[in-house]
Amino acid sequence: MRLPKLPKLSGRTVALLAAVGAVAVGAVAANASKNPSPPAATPVSKAPVTDVSADQPVSHEATAAELKAAAALPQCRSARLVPVNRSWGIPMPSILGSTSTTCNLMYGDDPYRGSSRTGDPETAIQVLQRNLNFCYGTKLAVDGIYGNNTRAVVKTVQRKHHLVVDGIYGPKTRSAMNWRLYSMATRSWSRSCSSPL
Length: 197
Prior knowledge:
Blueprint: H1 11-34, H2 64-71, E1 78-83, E2 88-94, H3 121-136, H4 148-160, H5 171-176, E3 179-183, E4 188-194
Antiparallel strand pairs: 1-2, 2-3, 3-4
């Protein structure tokens, strides 16, 4: 499903969408824990993980410098509904108190990283885990812990999309991966996944 380019939004509109999105993601997350979505019959994907043609760059394991750069971003400590068009949005991990989704989640986030206990990284991790389950056909426990299984699935997604394979969910992985869309107007989920970012 190809979606149109987003229009430019004013600061006031973005703030309003962020507030509405935060409430919606909380409600969606709470509802999903009561009524989990059934697995997708046929996950939408761009190519099988093993399909790497000679024309495309091959993903590689992360170097120490790449791991350090990826880890330098702040932990995603919230989730928000990122608008795609007038009807649809994508629930995705974000920075607490911001409209930015330039953050990361990594192995060991259980759910917090470090000594700070602000925000709700558990919800951010659960949003990612639910999306991976639906769009990539995995069977991750939606537990809000970024453990071995979640890291392994993120690495598989990174290989599939020819990214650096570091197991860290960050901006490059976010933009390359497929997402399930949510409609605030109809309070319904899309039947398939796409990569509208």
